[in-house]
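Field reference: sequence -> structure
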Amino acid sequence: MGGTPSAIARDAVAEGGAFITLGTMGGPVADGKRSQPANLLVAGSDLYIVDAGDGTVQQLAKAGFQLPQVRAVFLSHLHVDHTGGLSAILGLRNQTKVAVPLVVYGPPGTRELVAGIVASMRPAALAGYGIPGQPWDDPAAMVEVVEMGDGFTRTIGTMNVRAVQNTHYDFVPGSAEDRAFKSLSLRFDLPDRSILYTGDTGPSPAVEKLARGVDLLVSEMIDIDATLATVARNSPNMPEKAKADLVQHLTTHHLTPKDVGLLARRAGAKALVVTHFAGGTAGPERLSAIVDLVRKTYSGPVTLAKDLDRF
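Structure field:
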């Protein structure tokens, strides 16, 4: 881990794979120290964005990679802190005339999300560079969408990808809401290693099962007290009902340090990386204490990721 961005890029390709935490803040409140949730999976010469929060393109450049190199984007769920950077990814590829369409994999609703982004791109695409008679590239032709559900599996490039529905949402199984809205955890089995990305989730037996024996478990984590304090500063006049709903969401749809350790232990994960750290503005002493809490339930290697860390 570590090194200059260009060295990280070269080494990742040379070694056949890497997982780079482009943005490690737990959204949706912006933070001056950590970028919004986004990751880069390097599989040989293929690049994949895994969640695309605001600032993804800038973080990709900081990591030493170019946007045209990205083969596909995976979205774990459709909260804006995980999708806000997708518009820039698609728009800038269109503006710079990247010839190969980008594939966006995501849960139900991804097709609608992408269609809205494409519609917003059309005025700029038609105007082009302001040269009369200049042909334009239809943004819709430059992106493909594959919606994933619980149990999704597919071979993509040199890796096998599997997805399971997690517990970031509380919709009744089989209900209309459950069919329409899903939050997914993703496992990437590469030729030489396996990586499980939880996305946003609460405790989930399905995620534990999918993560069984994984080489690298990349998990979200929440510091409840720090997160609620950040929300209070950002939205001091939030209505009481909205505040109650938020507290329920934060306390049941995310993983505490103890939960993360239990997930890693039960899955038999060989190493644990914590990202999407809700409460990420905490000082060094608090962060160290949180890692100690994880280690009470998991004895393997634990890293609290920073932006641009490479694993």
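Note: The first strand starts at residue 17 and ends at 23.
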